[in-house]
Amino acid sequence: MTVLSLATAQKIIDAALAHSKAQGYKPMGIAVLDEAGQLKAFAREDGASMFRFDIARGKAWASVGMGVPSRQLAARAKDNPNFFVSLAATAAGKFLPQTGAVLIHSPEGELLGAGGASGRTGDEDEAICIAGIEAVGLVVG
User: Fold this and answer.
1) What is the dihedral of CA 76, 77, 83, 85, to 10 degrees?
2) Is this model's pTM higher than 0.70 or not?
3) Starting at the edge strand that comes first in sequence, how are the strands of the sheet with 39-44 ordered?
4) What does DSSP say about strands 101-105 and 139-140: parallel, antiparallel, or unpaired?
5) Is 108 in contact with 14 (CB distance < 8 Å)?
6) How far is CA 18 from the centre of its chain?
7) How far is the CA of 98 from the CAs of 46, 49, 107, 132, in angstroms?
8) How far apart are CA 45 and CA 97, in angstroms?
9) Average pLDDT over residues 10-25
10) What are the Cα distances from residue 68, in Å, to 51, 59, 73?
11) Which of 4-8, 35-39, 67-71, 83-87 has the weakest average pLDDT?
12) Phi, then psi, of 21 in degrees rounded to 5
């Protein structure tokens, strides 16, 4: 079984932040969680809002918990809002079905965790996560 190490999680964040800086984005927050939804690493750039951690983690937590990118959860939430409000309440607010998080898989397809970002639009947050994950040779799911 492959495990997402702290060193790899930090490399994902470093690469994601480098991508963010290259795009000229304002300060970001990026969270990397393991396959059980536990925080492996987080970075909040200087000047980022205090909400960045909770939002980035909530997107990633929802993604890994449901086994799909948060973009799919956002689409599902439109069709069944009561269910997703209930999930958020059950999860004490940690469940955030908004675009900006993707699953992290090993090259063999094994689920390792999820990465979530906050600070830009959902599409841009998602792109930052994808850049970080791909930069370390892992697969986005």
Assistant:
1) 160
2) yes
3) 39-44, 29-34, 111-118, 101-105, 139-140
4) antiparallel
5) no
6) 16
7) 24, 18, 26, 19
8) 23
9) 97
10) 23, 11, 7
11) 83-87
12) -65, -40
User: Do residues 16 and 129 make contact, with C-beta atoms less than 8 angstroms apart?
Assistant: yes
Query: Which amino acid type is present at position 92?
Result: A
**Strand 29-34 relative to strand 111-118: parallel, antiparallel, unpaired?**
antiparallel
* Alpha-carbon separation of residue 116 from 1, 26, 51, 73, 122 (angstroms): 23, 16, 13, 13, 10
DSSP H or E stretch at residue 101:
strand 101-105
Lookup result for tokens 């990633």: 60
pLDDT confidence band for 93 (50 / 70 / 90): confident
Rg of the chain over all Cα atoms, to the nearest angstrom: 14
CA dihedral 7, 17, 127, 41 (to 10 degrees): 40
Hey, what amino acid is at 75? A
φ and ψ at residue 34, rounded to 5 degrees: -85, -175
Helix (H) or strand (E) holding 19: helix 6-23
Bridge partners (DSSP) listed for residue 113: 34, 104
Confidence band of 124 (pLDDT split at 50, 70, 90): very high
